[in-house]
Design goal:
Shape: elongated
Distance between the termini: 22 Å
Number of strands: 4
Strand order of the largest sheet: 1-2
Order of helices and strands: HHHHHHEHEHEE
Helix content: 55-70%
Radius of gyration: 23 Å
Strand content: under 5%
Largest sheet: 2 strands, antiparallel
Number of helices: 8
């Protein structure tokens, strides 16, 4: 079965992507304002140093400000996505007839447990590292564009266009991909963690029921191949350890695992034997 967004995080991803797009736009405007105020008497080396210093300070200030926002910081992004994963896992469990104490096991309660906090913290470390890498790559590319434009004797408008191109194509684009990828990663990490708590040892990747992907009626070939892979337990069946870290499969992947207790659902009993229900 294919749906437009099986993770149901369209609004979450859109809102955070919009916030970071706006951040990059502010960086570009402030940087160009600084360039316009650059003293005319500076040497080439001093002009480059001036640009590099202003870019670094402006980007750092904007990144710190957005990270400090309770609504738009990267920690808030991961927590919201993780809670959505817990919500989806509970929905799957109810649909599969797996019993749990709904009041005490709501996402708002579960997310306060130490093991779930640890999952979020581990993802946040990776996310912050990637975010730092994006900032560094963007600064390097924007500086190169400025130097090339300076040496070419470009008019101010042409120089701004070249620098802006790097800020948007490297900074804004990669940030958007980062947000999308980590939202999906957090959703699926939560689903797998919840499956383990519920005593489910396996998740099932059945295209028409347990494994869904973004898009129209077509399914991404890479995701389809994953859905029919036989890991030794039957086509599309993954242990929780095998499933961890698999999704997102590719950039902008919005697939998710499903907890199921259907004809092909498999649980691990206390002796470690596979039990087909």
């Amino acid at each position: 079965m294919a749906t437009n967004d099986p993770t149901r995080t369209t609004i979450l991803r859109r809102d955070f992507r919009g916030a970071y797009n706006a951040m990059w736009a502010r960086v570009e405007r402030q940087l160009w304002a600084a360039v316009q105020e650059m003293p005319a008497y500076l040497t080439r080396t001093e002009q480059i140093q001036y640009f590099e210093r202003n870019l670094r300070e402006i980007l750092t200030a904007e990144a710190v400000a957005i990270e400090a926002s309770p609504a738009r910081g990267l920690g808030s992004l991961l927590q919201a996505a993780y809670m959505q994963g817990l919500n989806l896992a509970n929905f799957d469990a109810r649909a599969a007839g797996i019993e749990y104490w709904e009041e005490r096991e709501r996402p708002q309660v579960l997310v306060q447990q130490e093991d779930h906090k640890d999952e979020i913290a581990a993802l946040l470390l990776l996310l912050l590292s990637d975010w730092q890498g994006i900032q560094q790559a963007t600064q390097a590319q924007a500086l190169r564009a400025f130097v090339d434009s300076l040496d070419a004797g470009d008019a101010p408008g042409a120089m701004r266009a070249k620098v802006r191109d790097r800020l948007m194509k490297i900074g804004r684009t990669r940030t958007g991909l980062m947000v999308a990828s980590y939202v999906v990663a957090a959703v699926n990490a939560a689903i797998l963690a919840r499956a383990q708590h519920l005593g489910v040892g396996f998740v099932v990747l059945e295209e028409e029921l347990e494994f869904v992907t973004a898009g129209d009626n077509r399914v991404c070939p890479r995701c389809r191949n994953l859905a029919v892979r036989d890991n030794g337990y039957g086509p599309g069946i993954f242990t929780l350890s095998q499933a961890r870290g698999v999704i997102p499969v590719h950039a902008l992947c919005r697939c998710r695992w499903r907890i199921a207790r259907s004809g092909r659902a498999v649980l691990l009993d206390e002796s470690g034997r596979l039990e087909r229900l």
